[in-house]
Write a structure and sequence with these properties.
Strand content: 5-15%
CATH superfamily of the largest domain: NAD(P)-binding Rossmann-like Domain
Largest sheet: 5 strands, parallel
Distance between the termini: 52 Å
Length: 222
């Protein structure tokens, strides 16, 4: 069975983390970084996040901890029986479960994530080897250098402006493919902004430029 990859908007959504070990604390930090409202249920926490505010119930889990307003629970205690009990209770209530510990059935997994601005690189192995997923994600981050942050901003600006639809065609990958094949990322990496504008004009039309897209050159020059 293949898992369905998806991006979840967790902003201000309530998520619970059960367990205070290293894995639980790492998942807690990931949820905070995504803007979730997080409640930790654990007698202790091995590595409390250095950033982000969260509610901490310093005790073991109780069935009443689960309620319909919860979007996601992370099950990561050191007790397999408790993990199964929490997961089964949550799933009966149609709450998404991330089973971060052995002994519980989950609905979703957290991939290894690396970011370049808007560009999110996520790698998973369907639970087979999180360590491998992390290594592959690191390799991907090396492949996509810091210039891709600007490339992603430029792509978003093109989509917003609909300059690529001037011919009556819907926005699609063909324009981006032409830009990338034309060396867009390399030009950005080298700071060759006049050449970037020339490439935009060639692919998207004579009026297309960084300025027309509302983008400032990273070097600060007009």
């Amino acid at each position: 069975m293949s898992l369905f990859p998806a991006m979840l908007d967790l902003q201000d959504r309530l998520c619970l983390v059960f367990g205070g070990g290293t894995v639980a604390c790492r998942k807690l930090q990931s949820l905070l970084a995504a803007g979730a409202r997080v409640r930790l249920v654990a007698p202790d926490c091995r590595r409390p996040p250095a950033r982000g505010e969260f509610e901490w119930l310093r005790r073991c889990w109780r069935p009443e901890d689960l309620s319909p307003d919860i979007l996601l629970v992370v099950v990561a205690t050191d007790n397999p029986r408790v993990n199964r009990e929490i997961a089964e209770t949550a799933r009966r209530m149609n709450i998404l479960v991330n089973a971060a510990a052995v002994g519980a059935r989950g609905d979703l997994q957290f991939p290894a994530v690396r970011r370049r601005g808007r560009l999110t690189l996520a790698v998973g192995t369907e639970g087979g080897s999180p360590a491998l997923a992390g290594l592959v994600a690191d390799l991907a981050l090396q492949r996509f250098g810091s210039e891709w942050e600007f490339v992603a901003e430029l792509a978003a600006a093109l989509r917003r402006s609909a300059l690529t639809a001037a011919s009556g065609q819907e926005y699609n990958q063909s324009f981006l493919r032409l830009l990338l094949d034309g060396g867009l990322a390399e030009l950005v990496a080298r700071g060759r902004w006049n050449d970037v504008d020339q490439l935009l004009q060639t692919v998207c039309g004579g009026n297309c430029s960084l300025a027309a897209l509302g983008l400032e050159r990273p070097d600060g020059n007009p």
